[in-house]
Amino acid sequence: MSAQIPIAVRDRVSDKAAKTLDIVAKFVDEECIPADTVFEAQVGVGEARWQAHPKILEDLKEKARSLGLWNMFLPKGHYKESPGFTNLEYGLMAEWLGKSRVASEAVNCAAPDTGNMEVLAKYGNDAQKAQWLKPLMDGVIRSAFLMTEPQVASSDARNIELKMVRDGDHYVLNGSKWWSSGAGDPRCKIYIVMGKSDPNNKDPYKQQSVILVPSDTKGITIHRMLSVYGYDDAPHGHGHITFHNVRVPATNLVLGEGRGFEIIQGRLGPGRIHHAMRTIGAAERALEWMLMRINDPTKTPFGKQLREHGVILEWVAKSRLEIDAARLVVLNAAIKMDEQGPKAALKEIAQAKVLVPQTALTVIDRAVQSFGGAGVSQDTPLANMWAQIRTLRLADGPDEVHLQQMGRNENRRGKEVAAKIAAQKAKAEELLKKYNITRSEIGSNIKR
Amino acid sequence: MSAQIPIAVRDRVSDKAAKTLDIVAKFVDEECIPADTVFEAQVGVGEARWQAHPKILEDLKEKARSLGLWNMFLPKGHYKESPGFTNLEYGLMAEWLGKSRVASEAVNCAAPDTGNMEVLAKYGNDAQKAQWLKPLMDGVIRSAFLMTEPQVASSDARNIELKMVRDGDHYVLNGSKWWSSGAGDPRCKIYIVMGKSDPNNKDPYKQQSVILVPSDTKGITIHRMLSVYGYDDAPHGHGHITFHNVRVPATNLVLGEGRGFEIIQGRLGPGRIHHAMRTIGAAERALEWMLMRINDPTKTPFGKQLREHGVILEWVAKSRLEIDAARLVVLNAAIKMDEQGPKAALKEIAQAKVLVPQTALTVIDRAVQSFGGAGVSQDTPLANMWAQIRTLRLADGPDEVHLQQMGRNENRRGKEVAAKIAAQKAKAEELLKKYNITRSEIGSNIKR
Amino acid sequence: MSAQIPIAVRDRVSDKAAKTLDIVAKFVDEECIPADTVFEAQVGVGEARWQAHPKILEDLKEKARSLGLWNMFLPKGHYKESPGFTNLEYGLMAEWLGKSRVASEAVNCAAPDTGNMEVLAKYGNDAQKAQWLKPLMDGVIRSAFLMTEPQVASSDARNIELKMVRDGDHYVLNGSKWWSSGAGDPRCKIYIVMGKSDPNNKDPYKQQSVILVPSDTKGITIHRMLSVYGYDDAPHGHGHITFHNVRVPATNLVLGEGRGFEIIQGRLGPGRIHHAMRTIGAAERALEWMLMRINDPTKTPFGKQLREHGVILEWVAKSRLEIDAARLVVLNAAIKMDEQGPKAALKEIAQAKVLVPQTALTVIDRAVQSFGGAGVSQDTPLANMWAQIRTLRLADGPDEVHLQQMGRNENRRGKEVAAKIAAQKAKAEELLKKYNITRSEIGSNIKR
Amino acid sequence: MSAQIPIAVRDRVSDKAAKTLDIVAKFVDEECIPADTVFEAQVGVGEARWQAHPKILEDLKEKARSLGLWNMFLPKGHYKESPGFTNLEYGLMAEWLGKSRVASEAVNCAAPDTGNMEVLAKYGNDAQKAQWLKPLMDGVIRSAFLMTEPQVASSDARNIELKMVRDGDHYVLNGSKWWSSGAGDPRCKIYIVMGKSDPNNKDPYKQQSVILVPSDTKGITIHRMLSVYGYDDAPHGHGHITFHNVRVPATNLVLGEGRGFEIIQGRLGPGRIHHAMRTIGAAERALEWMLMRINDPTKTPFGKQLREHGVILEWVAKSRLEIDAARLVVLNAAIKMDEQGPKAALKEIAQAKVLVPQTALTVIDRAVQSFGGAGVSQDTPLANMWAQIRTLRLADGPDEVHLQQMGRNENRRGKEVAAKIAAQKAKAEELLKKYNITRSEIGSNIKR
């Protein structure tokens, strides 16, 4: 909440945002986290899980709107639909949302809708906005972003190969998508689909287009849902979807043919900040559960509470330190994005993208370990959190791809620093002469 | 297989064991791993998962017996029922069994039956053996070991508190158990239960007893099954079981009242070797899947196969090295147990217990990462393997408890090494005098 | 330099500070780093190393003063002698100073003088200030802080036991000190000494006093100098000093008898920020040397430059990320100290104290490894940097002491979070009732 | 000593070797370690360090010979000069030698002489043996192996470029070498030099030759000695040497022109085992010093001895485990080399080469940390040990080169395992048909 904002960024948080943050925090702690249990119960069992729309979520949404919590993610200054928060301010709220499974959706800030709404707000035409952005902003439908494909290395988006062939006023789509997150939800009405419309374009960054496909279009089959370490994430889910001669009006194209890369790149910055801050929140919650456990007076192996044993307090200290460091990295990236735009903030965003999930996984795993068996089971939120966050080391490109890119960028300084060091060495030689002294090298007087 | 046995232990493996190992390897690779898919399909969905006994498993058991693969785990020299292999020899076979979900059960070497059979063979009386050991050895029933309890810190077994009260010729049991692995299987007919029969005994290691409880005894309720990350491990499962006035004949007591600690300690050594070697096998399989992926000609991010990218080959090399090192640690422990007994091998077994799961988790996680999304899903065996092995850092005591114990044991040398170092320093002073020379300390001539 | 200040803190840096920072950066890069070589040559060999006062250092000091770079460390608002920078602002400058061996002293911001000047400015009386603070501020003498003792565990300062016995108008000191850094310098004229003046005081935090001892007082012997991984750090050095009936006027007492703890605690905050930021600077320089090496066109193992090999770019990326994260942690702590005082910033300062040296050691070690043999030798600044920074994991208390303290502090939340989670669980039960639904637990319908 | 040999290898150690091992252990503990102090004092200060030949070393050599400890390194079966030990047996002795600075030389088993003697014994002709092998075996001279060069990436030996030009009956050598270890010793009489004799040979592995060069040959200059962190390692030292028209008789060529690669590859196997086992010994000694410290009754921070604090016992346990695992890896490699030759043992030797130094550095660094300031200083053997062993991650090729090679080798299985997994998948499909069942995929019945 607002009292805990790191001092370095505190003065950039408006009073309104600070107040909203406190409302978010209270809403999450007192309403959403208890609701998570009911949500899971209402999702049910078996095939019903993919038809469910838990009542409690609609109740929470109503409550959220009455508290003024709605669509806070849409950044100030970029969209007329924005409630007026910066990425920094919303980032602080997203941390709290990340502690609960239902909270983000309850305030209409859940992925992938957030990114999809940004795409529509940024690149959609008026008709597209009216048809799809409006109901998304109102929280009456949900959406999915279909990019990743099972048969290629999608971490390099140029490989995406779902066929988009122009046929009169339509495009005809054929191919497969997977990790279509959110496609399991019966309210998911619109797919934003990336495909290859111009496979022979010499510029590999102009071969792709993005098109809007209603989820009930003929020829679309939800082949199955993918599990994440045994979790199905229903009703949201991660779809494996096939397209067989799916016809979509050409007017559904977003921004224009061949502009797919432009769209996916524009979509990523804020989303990475959101993910990172929600992940920070999850790590904070894991740390709290760990604190609860190690102070549990009924659990006293070898006559002492867990907190008094060996490495436990060091785990607590390291977790605190690592979370705090990671949060500063994300917030600094958010500020950079707010003040200089996502392109200028590429380095900072990439750092947050790589650092935060690894940090959170370490913290959560310590919490699991401190719980023993309960930690891996349904009796704590820890195992599920771990599994969800483990995917963030893969989603939007695996860590290794980002690290290679970051390494290449940093390495661009190579020539310049080599020149600087060479100049420093030359200057040193000059100074040695000036002071009329020689370097004393050990062993330089040895004679054999 | 036998051609890959580390050279340091090769000469201790009999020809018979080497041949059997090759049969096991072929059986696992060609029969069991393909059967895993069918097994999962036959387990079914929903509540049926806890009633299932997949047909393919019985077919595999028949095949295994025809190949001479049955009960190999029961160590030579200790039990007349043993097929004659050492812990080392069976350990090498267990590595192969660990690559498949069904393999261990197919050759009647699945936990927890193995440890339970050892308990009965070692401590059971003739009637107990006839009633329970015989059908377990024949693979017609299964069993569970009920020790861990939800409300106490079970890593310190003295905390186990299920009440066992003598009432005439019976004991009456009241309390809760969880992580009762295997209790989900409809064929699980016998529970070996640890409880507190003498809570006031001054020796906290004599308060516990172990008793045999048929799983259909009145008063027992399977409250629910625990999940491991999102997996239910059906039909095997991990039971949360309550005992309400459960009456068992006093003749079901194993070894005698107050001897529970003796039994659980005798049970652990070989089981830890088995778990460790199966885990090595899982790590090997994960490495193979990773090799498959990084050489997949259809997956070429940024124009190169994965094996040509950045850190990938280093991951392969480290995985190879870490698995090989861990295997040597386990096999050395097995030899020590074979030649000097489990008590003498305590240190070596504890090292294997701690080292192997951490090693395997690292290897498997690298494989997951190299697969991208497929790695966390049902499309590879990796995510499930990871979750199963993650529990081994907790089961039979968390790593930290073992490390503290190992640290204390090693620290017993403290006094002796301090004396040795003191003697070395004294001798050095003596020699300085003898050679009439003084230590040259830097700065010792500074005058101010 | 100012263009690289992290955006989160940029707006707190005054124009004057930004300009000064740029001057510092240029002075370090163009004057100080080249001078390091000459400095080492002028220090000479053998015993002369402890008599040396390299001429180039005085020339640099003159240059520095002419550039307006002098005593920037003394924080604004606390001392009338301050040039007016905040801890944040000076921290950014300290980063640059940390790249060169001579830079800090050239601008009169070298440890331990900085901390000692703070002690005198904060706690010294007018006479003490006139006699010692004045020449220290002018850079004409140097100083040492004598706390650590060889025969006790000094990480717990209550163990400090150098005897300080009142004898009329004097105190008589007997005992040993080591790690008296700076005592090797012939210009080191004043020791600030902590000793035990009241061993029987019931409050263990009131047994210690701090007294000023001129380094040429009778009875003081520099026994020897301690090496750091083979380096003598001459002429600065780390003294091992004995006190035999050393008489000092009682007027040399700082602040009053029994107030030693108050003084050492007041001394630590800013010093830890300085150390941390200088260490960040060293890590940056190590990364630059690494970039130079991996782009060296003459070094092409297996036909490719190092930057094209395996893990190298990932090392670069991780180093960049880890340094950037660590810097934010330190700067956030500096801001907290600036705005709320060192006591409020305890947590943040401790985090910086622990995180930064470990980060820098990792970065430097990667650089060493990328250089091969040159990395461990006198041909790069890397090995020496590593050794210096390795001591920071021990100085002012080893990491583990700080982590335990940080863990204990964080753990204070234990009770509160346990209550919160309990309330959340109770609310969930209430909601389940309200929505008339039960948790669906797997396996809860099993009947045996 | 013999009682501590890991059980897995114990039966391969002959009685003679076991007895010798016990003698070595006693000799090291009681004679050599105390002598280290005297040795360092006798080496002296300043330039004299490179002229010193400490008397105590000759006394130890005499003692060693009288105990039958001499040249144990020369492996049985390969050389008529061998005292008859296997690589395994000598490896166990080398562990003890690695605890002391002087021990290896005291028993004439010091690098680089050992490798050089192997080269001469294996590839030298009779004249070469008489002139150089004989006095080396007798311990009356020492030697150096000059391969690495400052101006190229020597980790790829094809880059070695010291010019060797045939001129009548002589070769003329021009170029520079560094990291010529041992060249500082005044008794170092012979250099084994690798150079490029045939730069235009199409086979890059045939361009190099190895030639014997007496260290007093005209044209050779010891330019300087390299330091390792701040240590000079005098009198041994690491030379930076220049060759200016150095003329050597063509008869000094070893094995023949163009056979340099053959020689350096033949030289490496046993040497890597020796280094690894000595490093294990150093790690054991570090652990012993740590045990001494954490049980020191005079060092009680916060009222408890160090062993009772937080993570300390876990450090002890992990150190014990990691050393034990690493030792098994080396001994298994030694056995493979003994029984199947160095070529067959390439993988195992490379694993030892990479694993052991990293393990030892971790253990030693923990010991340093537990000592506080004393750990980095001259008062413990730890800092020096760390620095020496740090070079082993670079010498004979940096870890990363070995890991890449190991990764490539392991990756050769890629095709085979891909085929196996494909076969397993095909078999699974076949079995699904046979059992007339389909895979149950979650969400496969979703209709929209």
UniProtKB/TrEMBL annotation, chains A, B, C, D:
Residues 22-139 form the Acyl-CoA dehydrogenase/oxidase N-terminal domain. GO terms for cellular component: cytoplasm. SUPFAM superfamilies: Acyl-CoA dehydrogenase C-terminal domain-like, Acyl-CoA dehydrogenase NM domain-like. Keywords: FAD, Flavoprotein, Oxidoreductase. GO terms for molecular function: acyl-CoA dehydrogenase activity; flavin adenine dinucleotide binding. Its cofactor is FAD. Residues 144-246 form the Acyl-CoA oxidase/dehydrogenase middle domain. Pfam families: Acyl-CoA_dh_1, Acyl-CoA_dh_M, Acyl-CoA_dh_N. GO terms for biological process: fatty acid beta-oxidation using acyl-CoA dehydrogenase. The keyword Transcription regulation does not apply. Residues 258-409 form the Acyl-CoA dehydrogenase/oxidase C-terminal domain. The keyword Cell cycle does not apply. Belongs to the acyl-CoA dehydrogenase family. Homodimer. This is Acyl-CoA dehydrogenase family. It comes from Podospora anserina (strain S / ATCC MYA-4624 / DSM 980 / FGSC 10383) (Pleurage anserina).
